[in-house]
Structures are given as C-alpha cells and as structure tokens.
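JOB MANIFEST
job_type = single_chain_structure
chain_count = 1
residues = 225
[input]
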Amino acid sequence: MSDYEFHLMQLADSFFPSGMFGLSGGLESFVKSGRVKSGNDVLRFIRQQIKFQLVPCDCTVLSAVMHSAKKDDVAGAVEADNRCYSMKLVREVRTASARSGRQLLNCLVNMTNDRFAKKFYAKVEAKESAGTYPACLAVATSALCIPQKSALRMMLYSYCASIVGSAVRLGLITHIEGQSILTQLARDVNSAKPAKNINELWQLTPLAEILQMQHEQDDLRMFIT
C-alpha cells in the first residue's frame, strides 16, 4: 500500500471530524416537497448534483487549489477559495462548507508541518480566505501527497455516501439499497472531469437552491442542509 492510500482512507472516513457526513446536500428539502420518493429518485438527484454542481464548481476549485499548492501560490488558492464561496448562493450551504473546511484545515495543521497548509490556514484565520471545504480538502490532499485524481474521486465519493446515508436516515431506502446506489454511481465518480481553468467555474442547480433556501426557514430539520 502506498503511503498516500492510508491518508486517502483517513480523510474519506466518516470518523474524520469534518462534519460532511451530517449534511443531506438538499435531499431533505426534496423529500419534504415530494420530489424524491424512491431509491431511483435518490440516484437521479445525486447524478444531477454531480453533473451540474460538484464537477463544474467544487471539483474545479479542488483542482485549482491543488495546482496552486504545488506552485506555493497562496494568492491563487485564496482566489479559488473565495470564488467557490461566492458561487454558493444559499447561506446555509456557504456556512456549512466553510465550517467543514475550517475543521478539516484545523485538523491538518495539527497533523502535519506542511508549510503551504500553515500559510493558507493563516489566510483563513485572518478572514482573507473563506475556507470552503473543496479548497481546504485540496490543501489537505496536497499536503498528504494524495494524487489529484484520487482526491477528486474521494470528494465525490464522500458526497455520494453522505447523500445515500441521509436517504437511509430519512427512511427512503435500506442500507442494502444504499450500497446498490453507490455502486451505480461509480462510473459518474470515476469519469468526472473538472474544468482546467478557474475562470470556467460554473454551476446550475436552481431548484435545489430554492428548496435549500426554504429549508433554512423550516422549524423541524434533521440535517444542516
């Protein structure tokens, strides 16, 4: 086993205190609205989010920040991070991403002596950089020598597992059905290709954003987002 594979599993594990496994990614709102009722609906929801939000936005940011880390370009990482934050139109989603990112980064600077991670952490602490989850994950994977392709797949898998776990807790599917959904998502995760330039950053999930805005106002919520 290569050294980076241990850290790949470490970051992807729900035991790692980033808080990402406590999010539904908007699924709870779709269930409450009656738009997601079955395992097939869950699969369709995840695929649409991967195609129209995660790959063109979060994955592109992760790739850009990993590239900046290799060049020791803190300014480039900060720019990509802040762009990512500005793309998240729902306050609840912005806050959750920044909270998870900062928790991840805080763990990282206590785990390693990586110079770039410490410089980026200082920017986040000074509130010059938002500290979004994709950007902080990029800093972490770079510091732990995880290849970019593996980092991208890990982030997408963690998202898929989080949504599937939410579907189980919401009573939509069983654990066995959840594993079947994850297996069907393997091709989507493995074939994901983010944009090469941060200027090509985009996302288009208007319905999800509207429902997540409504979710912010709900009195009873199982998940943060």
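[summary]
The CA atoms of residues 66 and 142 lie 6 Å apart.
The two ends are 36 Å apart (CA to CA).
exit_status = 0
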